[in-house]
Every structure is written in structure tokens, then in C-alpha cells.
Amino acid sequence: MRLDRFLGNLPDFNRRNSRLLLASGRVRVDGQVVRDGCSEIREFSRIEVDGRILQPGRAALYFMLHKPAGVVSATRHERHRTVLDLLDEPDRQGLHLAGRLDLGTTGLLLLTNDGHWSRRITHPRYKLAKVYYVETAEPIGEEYIETFARGLYFAFEDLVTQPAHLELLGSHSARLTLFEGRYHQVKRMFGYFRNPVLRLHRESMGPLRLESELPPGHYRPLTSEEIQLI
Ligand code: URA
């Protein structure tokens, strides 16, 4: 089938806006931008608009996984097992991560093949709360609360972090809520006080919480209600 005909037949598009989508380079076929509507697509071609997969036959997939320590948040890696290796799903190669965790970090990880949905989780514009349980090498002082709420300057990105909420739980443990997801953000924030993070666990992302019934290394599909919440 021709690509423009395929797009024009979908409920979200018509002939005219399909042509515009193609011309603006927002359509990919098997990962390559295609601007020519006359291009032929095959049954198993992967069609995306702005990262959203369009095949009617290829369902959108959404999973929550309890990431164990020692597994890499990536779809492939030369040395370590990846989180994709934990999924026993035929279409797992099409999945990507909605927010990564460091090798030693445990907790909630979301995987999907729906780029629109994952952007609402990861893009700082949406300010979705990500809650972490943290244990540190040194005592955590009251002054951390104010400093994290004010924001910290990250020189590499040349930005000030969004106000974050810190709840002290014990002398060396706390719950930190972030509204963005910068590279190694939690460790860098505690690093400001030269306080190494010894344990880091993501408890929730927005309305989605990791339940105790899901042990490390296990996963489950999200329900349609959970998908709609994001
Ligand atoms: N911040 C970190 O420093 N590491 C993570 O894995 C997640 C947030």
C-alpha cells in the first residue's frame, strides 16, 4: 500500500494533513524519515508519526517493571543484562524506556512503544513527580530540605534544578520527589553536600506506584486505566 493512502485512511488523519506530516519530516518508516507519500509500505513496515507507532495491527504496549540492581536501563548493552532481557514478550524489541535508572538503582521502570506517552513522563515540561527512597553514607541534615527546594545549579547542563521536595525519614534516609529527570540527578544533588548515595529506589512516577506484589526482576502490563492516567 502507498504510504499517503495508509495515513489518509487512519481516523486521526486525512489526505491533506497526511501530506503536511510527510513534508515536515514527521513520518518514519522502519526508522527512516520518509517524505514521499508514493512510497510503498509492506505489511510489517513500522510506521511512526512523531515517535507514535501507527500500525493498526501493532498494538501499543505499556509495562511496569521492578528493576533490580545490576541490570542496565538500556535496550542493548555489550557487557550487562538489560531490562529488555527481563521481558518475555514477542514485541519487546520495539519498546523503549520512559526514564532510565542507574545500574545500581532499583525500582519502578516504565517501558512502552508509544513515544507520545513516554514523552509526557520524561519531558521536564510536564513536571511529573518521580519519588525516590534514598540512603546515604553521611547523615542528611535539615539544610538539605531548603537547598533542594531552592534548586541546585548543574554546570554541565547550565540550569537550575526544579524545586524538589525532601522528606527526612531517618538520620541517613529520606524520600525525595523530583519533577524532572536529569542525568544522575539524585546522586548529584546529594553530591552537593559530599554525601554519597548508597541506596536508591524509585517508588513512583506520577500516579503509577510500584506495588510490593511485584518483586525485583518482575513486570506486568499496565491496565488501560493506568495508561490513561498519564
Ligand atoms: N538519580 C540518580 O542519580 N540515579 C538514578 O538512577 C535515578 C535518579
UniProtKB/TrEMBL annotation:
Entry keyword Isomerase: yes
Biological processes, Gene Ontology terms: enzyme-directed rRNA pseudouridine synthesis
InterPro entries in UniProt: PsdUridine_s_RsuA/RluB/E/F_cat, PsdUridine_synth_cat_dom_sf, PsdUridine_synth_RsuA/RluA, PsdUridine_synth_RsuA/RluB/E/F, PsdUridine_synth_RsuA/RluB_CS, RsuA_PseudoU_synthase, S4_RNA-bd, S4_RNA-bd_sf
Signal peptide bounds: none
Molecular function terms, GO-annotated: 23S rRNA pseudouridine(2604) synthase activity; RNA binding
Catalytic activity reported: uridine(35) in tRNA(Tyr) = pseudouridine(35) in tRNA(Tyr); uridine(2604) in 23S rRNA = pseudouridine(2604) in 23S rRNA
Domain RNA-binding S4 per the UniProt entry, residue ranges: 1-58
Record-stated family: Belongs to the pseudouridine synthase RsuA family.
Name listed for the protein in its UniProt record: Pseudouridine synthase
Organism, scientific name: Azotobacter vinelandii (strain DJ / ATCC BAA-1303)
Name of the gene encoding the protein in the UniProt record: rsuA
